Amino acid sequence: MALPININELIKGFTVEWERIEFKEGWNPEVILHTICAFANDMNNWGGGYLIIGIAEDNGRAILPPPKGLDIKDLDKIQQELHQLCHKITPSYFPVVEPYEIQGKHILVVWVPGGDNRPYKAAKNLRKGAEKLYYVRRMSSTVRANEQEEQQLIQLTAKIPFDDRVNHHANISDLSLGLIRIFLQQVKSDLFNSALSMPFEDLVRAMQIARGANEYLLPVNVGLLFFSDTPEKFFPYSWIEVNIYHDNVGDSFTEKVFKGAVYQQLKEALSYIKSSVIQEHVKKVENQAEAIRFYNYPYSAIEEALANAVYHKNYELREPIEVNVRLDRIEILSYAGPMPPLSKDDFTKERIIARKYLNRRVGDFLRELHLTE
Questions:
Q1: pTM reported for the whole predicted model
Q2: What burial class does residue 284 get, using C-beta atoms within 10 Å of its C-beta: 0-12 exposed, 13-18 middle, 19+ buried?
Q3: CA gap 353, 136 in Å, rounded
Q4: Which of 40, 43, 277, 306 is 20 to 30 Å apart from 289, CA to CA?
Q5: Angle value at C-alpha 357, between 135 and 14, nearest 5 degrees
Q6: If you average pLDDT over residues 180-188, what whole number do you get?
Q7: What is the mean pLDDT of residues 169-191?
Q8: What pLDDT shows up at residue 286?
Q9: pLDDT (tens digit, 9 = 90+) per residue, 34-88?
Q10: What is the dotted CATH code of the domain comprising 7-159?
């Protein structure tokens, strides 16, 4: 079954950060075991990662064209060995594995979403009775966790980011097949071609937007945010408000509210701002043929800021995303502020570095749609 991602863009690093992709020229079980464990631990809530077996790498980038590839006769054997290998992870964890053909060569793509039962340990080596250790991603490398990282992992015990939690107040009928197919078509996923013919339960499982046994299959929150026509039904005030003020007092303003699937809200709000707020100014220059053209606001900056507001919003809070267009500035408000260990005082510093994310799945879907970096 195809994955809900464009494989060609994944390999080129267009839709997933390089730190979340690991290329392996061939089958190296011990190293692959440790990397699966590290991605499953997902210490920074990046959303796990992808292992691509059959493509060589140079400084973390794929060596193309062509890929090294795997012998087609070995694909089933490697998948069986991989399944057995994952029994060496505690607690149990099994990634999603799918073979693909790229430029005439066969590869295996191992999708490792952040696990629900963190922290995970993996056997140090493949010998029977080997010691089990914590592994994490440190930038683009898989390493054994140090003491501080072990403490951080232990603090993550049973902590699933909000967007990846099962929603017990909804059912899979609240997910729209139409919205799912639109998304798969826009990202050029191979899953689009089979979305109509496969059982809906299998489709939402393949996209990791629902979990549970057949008799109790429930959507996860990110599925409702992206593929429900009315996400505000489950997350009150999960919409974008754009307020254009006409005076300095704030008594006169035009309000427009954008509802629906969050990525559609984002697109429609940006389109509205581009047409209603962004203005081009032309200034003639004496003795010069070309005029100087400039804009009242840089659209690319607004696009990035609003996409980040959607990405990092706390959807448990009953507050909308607000875009306030004042006479002299634009304010974008998205609650609930910076994630620990960041505080508001950190924003007075010249440089801020933060690698922990509030939502780990929202960003993946936005990146697939090229709405955020």
A1: 0.79
A2: exposed
A3: 19
A4: 277
A5: 85
A6: 94
A7: 94
A8: 83
A9: 999 999 999 888 889 999 999 998 888 888 888 889 999 999 999 999 999 999 9
A10: 3.30.950
Which residue shows structure tokens 């077996």?
53
Say how far apart CA 108 and CA 101 lie, in whole Å: 9
Best CA proximity match to 312, nearest among 326, 332, 331, 329? 332
Q: What is the phi-psi region of residue 54: left when phi exceeds 0, alpha when psi lies from -120 to 50, beta otherwise?
A: left
Q: Which tens digit of pLDDT belongs to each residue from 241-289? A: 999 999 888 789 999 999 999 999 999 999 999 999 999 888 888 888 8
Q: Is the pLDDT of residue 338 over 70?
A: no
Domain boundaries, the chain: 7-159, 172-229, 240-368
- Bridge-based pairing state of the strands 49-53 and 21-24: parallel
Within 13 Å and on the Cβ side, how many CA atoms surround 233? Answer: 15
Identify the CATH number of the domain defined by range 240-368.
3.30.565.60
- For residue 120, the tally of other CB atoms under 10 A from its CB is 23
- 187 φ/ψ sector (left φ>0, alpha ψ -120 to 50, else beta): alpha
Position 194, amino acid: S
Q: Give the closest residue to 121 by CA, choosing from 107, 136, 110.
A: 136
From the list 300, 262, 259, 307, the residue with the least C-alpha distance to 278 is: 300
What span, in angstroms and rounded, lies between the C-alpha atoms of 196 and 307? 30
